[in-house]
Structures are given as C-alpha cells and as structure tokens.
Amino acid sequence: MMSTDQTLVCADCSTNFTFSASEQEFYQQKGFSAPRRCKPCRDAVKAAKGQGGGGSSYGGGGRSSSGGGGDYGSRPQREMHDVICGNCGVQTKVPFKPTGDRPVLCRDCFQR
Ligand SMILES: [Zn+2]
Ligand SMILES: [Zn+2]
Questions:
Q1: Which residues are within 5 Å of ligand 1 (an ion), measured at CB?
Q2: Of 26, 65, 75, 103, which sits 20 to 30 A from 94 (CA to CA)?
Q3: Cα–Cα distance, 60 to 63 (Å, whole number)
C-alpha cells in the first residue's frame, strides 16, 4: 500500500497536524478512523480522562463540548428519587433507588 503523509486539522484547536503514512497504516490495521485531534489535544483528553478531572480551570473559550457525535438524549426517562448528599448535605435527585448501605452523593460530589 502506498500511503503519504496527510495534513489534518484538529477538531479542538484547529491546528494543522501531520497524520503520517506510518500512522495511517497503524490506524488502518487497528481499524481506527483518522484522528480528529492533534497530538497535544489527544494527550490532553487522555490525561483528563485518566485523572478524572481535578480542579481544571481551562481559560476562556466557549467551545467546550461541541462537535463529536452525541448520542445524548436517547435514554428513556428514569424515575428520580430525592436524596440528601452524604458528603455535602445538599438535597438532590438520583436516577436510582438509594439502598441505604452506601452514601449517596450529589452530582457535584460524585464528579470529584
Ligand atoms: Zn489540537
Ligand atoms: Zn454533595
């Protein structure tokens, strides 16, 4: 197969980056589609996922989670239960029935 380097545009920061011939072969072998982000952005995404996001205060920039296929909103509505957060004491709702043997956390606390 004859591959050549491609220049792609990062979906996150709009930087041009090189999708090299060897990378293309690698992606093809793995059955991946072409990357949509440049290397730094991909690393940033990985890092963010790995750490579960701790106190990230990204400066500016309104385009947080735009783009990317969203299968949001395709879930059936669930019954919500009123609970008190076991960590901060705020009243919140959860989509499952609290069992009582585990503290229930509000969304804020849960995301820490
Ligand atoms: Zn980028
Ligand atoms: Zn809480």
A1: 10, 12-13, 15, 38, 41
A2: 65
A3: 9
Distance 2 CA to ligand 1 centre (A): 27
pTM reported for the whole predicted model: 0.41
pLDDT in tens, 17-27: 999 999 999 99
3-class secondary structure for 1-38?
Answer: CCCCCEEEECCCCCCEEEECHHHHHHHHHHCCCCCCCC
Q: Give the pLDDT confidence of 46-55 residue by residue, as tens digits.
A: 999 887 555 5
- As beta bridge partners, residue 8 has 17
What's 38-52 look like in SS3?
Answer: CHHHHHHHHHHHHHC
CA of 104 to the centre of ligand 2 (A): 8
Measured from the alpha carbon of residue 94, the closest ligand is 2
As given in the structure block, the two tokens for residue 72 are 């949001």
